[in-house]
C-alpha cells in the first residue's frame, strides 16, 4: 500500500487509506496509449492519424495556473509540419448529461481498424500551446467545446472536435455510415481554419537558451451575477507576466458561478509522425485539493 510522504505525519494510516482510495477511484481520462502520466506527457504517434488525450485531476477549482514545459519544441519530423505537437490545459471539464441519439459508435485503433465502443460525452475548454519551428514563434489557441463524443479521442482522422460519428462498418471493417455528433467547438483565441494557430502568435516570446518552452496558462473566473461569469484565460511567461501578442481569452458559460470551475486536467494532440515530450504542473490553486502525485508515494508493503 502506498502512503504520502508529505502528509503521513498529519494522518493515521487508516485515514490515509481512505484518502488514497478516494483519489485512485476517481480518475477520468481518454488516453488509450497512456500519453499522459501524472505531470508527464510523452507519446510518439507513428500513425497517419491524430492522437488526442486528456486526463482529469477529478477535482474542481475556481482558480489554477498550469505550468507547461515543452521539452522538444524544435523536433518536427514531418516535412509538412511547421510546428510540434500541442500541449494543453483542459478546464471547465464535465460529462455532458444531455440526451444523445447515439450511444455506441466505432472508434479508430492504433492499427487503423475500427472497434465499437460506448460513447461518453464531454463539455470542456482547452488552451493549447506549441512552438512553431519554421517561424520561431510561440503559438496558442483557446476553444470551448460541447457535446464532444469520446470517439474523437485516441486516434482519429478529424482535425477538430466536431468529427462525425461512425455508426456502421462494411464487410471489410471500413467506415460505412457517418452521422453528425452535434458537437460544437467555439473559437475563442484561434480560428477554426487549418491551421488553428496561423495568426495567433505570442510575438514577444523567444525560445530560452535551454531549448525548453516554459509558459503559464492562467485561468480565473471573473464577472458578476448581473452580466454573467466567464473564464479569463491568459498566456504568461514563467515569471507570471502576460506575454505580448497573446490574446486574452474570455469564455462565457451558462450556469458558471464565482466558485465553481468544474474539473481541470492535462491535454495533448500529437500529430501524425510526431512526438510529445512535456510536463504540465499546477500552481496557485484555489478550490478542492489536488490529488497527491504518484511521485510523492512510498511503498510500505515491503
Structure overview:
The protein has 302 residues and is mostly beta strands. It has a 15-stranded antiparallel sheet that branches. A two-stranded antiparallel ribbon has the order 1-21. The N and C termini lie close together (9 Å). The N terminus is likely disordered.
Strand tally: 21
Helix fraction by DSSP (H/I, runs of at least 4)? under 10%
- Count of DSSP-assigned helices: 1
Beta-strand percentage? over 45%
3D shape: globular
Query: What kind of assembly state do the chains in view correspond to?
Result: single chain
Low-confidence stretches: 1-27
* Order of secondary-structure elements: EHEEEEEEEEEEEEEEEEEEEE
Major sheet description: 15 strands, antiparallel
Overall pLDDT score: 85
How far do the termini sit from each other?
A: 9 Å
| Structural class by SSE content | mainly beta
Radius of gyration: 20 Å
Short synopsis of the structure:
This protein has 302 residues and is mainly β. It has one helix at 13-24; strands spanning 2-4, 28-30, 36-37, 40-44, 50-70, 86-95, 104-108, 114-118, 121-132, 137-149, 154-156, 165-169, 175-179, 184-189, 201-202, 213-224, 228-237, 249-252, 263-270, 275-287, 297-299.
